[in-house]
Design brief:
Number of domains: 2
Order of helices and strands: HEEEEEHHEEEEEHH
Largest sheet: 5 strands, antiparallel
Number of helices: 5
Radius of gyration: 18 Å
Structural class: alpha+beta
Strand content: 15-25%
Length: about 230
């Protein structure tokens, strides 16, 4: 079996994550909203993230350090991510009001972020596949506001519904982390020790040590799903 171990976080990761977050929130998500009227969530795509298929076909996405528009007619436009305004204009997306500040991007950091999303997408699909009907799980969605990929799972009246996902990091976390965030705070917070929110987290540095990160992340979700079911 090929080595499934993860790599450690590059020094440029936080700056790259923040830059790509701005691309998601200010270019890619608005492109979906403009095409659909009210839908703005994103999905994992080859090399990064993007819109699902848009009405009429095609999508808008980020592939590594490039902004890509796949047209419904098969035409593709690509532009390097330089500034928000310049990159959007280069692929004929709305650019008025976007920043001219240079985006701080690193190829290795962008690759790690893309890999983290691919891993999370697979783990969440595995977890979704285990769900009982009462859990009413939602599909995977990448939310541009927090830049996390997540599903909702559990019986809300029974107090077991929670959001399960992966964040690429935030002000309180320098690295990506899997998380479980209960909708109703557990009465006993002993095992719910996340930083910055009521929940649980599994950090990238912990996953780097795992022989199979996909199995480790799935087991993390299972552990806290079961804890909620037991009222812990």
């Amino acid at each position: 079996m090929a080595d499934a171990r993860l790599t450690e976080i590059p020094l440029a990761f936080a700056a790259t994550r923040n830059a790509l977050h701005s691309v998601a929130e200010q270019i890619v998500s608005p492109a979906r909203a403009a095409a659909t009227g009210d839908e703005f969530s994103l999905v994992v795509t080859a090399g990064g993230f993007g819109t699902p298929a848009l009405p009429g076909g095609g999508c808008v996405r980020v592939d590594g350090l490039e902004l890509v528009v796949d047209g419904g007619d098969g035409e593709q436009k690509r532009a390097p991510l330089t500034t928000l305004r310049e990159s959007a204009a280069a692929v004929d997306l709305p650019s008025e009001g976007l920043s001219d500040e240079a985006l701080e991007l690193d190829d290795a950091a962008a690759g790690l972020l893309a890999g983290a999303y691919v891993l999370a997408d697979a783990v969440l699909r595995d977890f979704y596949g285990e769900a009982l009907p009462v859990a009413a799980p939602t599909g995977n969605q990448l939310w541009p506001e927090h830049f996390d990929i997540a599903i909702e799972h559990g019986d809300e009246p029974a107090g077991t519904r929670a959001t399960y996902g992966l964040s690429p990091g935030d002000a309180a976390h320098s690295e990506p982390y899997f998380y479980v965030a209960p909708w109703s705070p557990p009465s006993d917070l002993t095992i719910w020790t996340a930083v910055g929110f009521t929940g649980a987290e599994l950090n990238w540095s912990q996953l780097v040590e795992a022989e199979d990160p996909r199995v480790a992340a799935l087991q993390f979700f299972r552990e806290y799903r079961d804890a909620l079911a037991l009222g812990d």
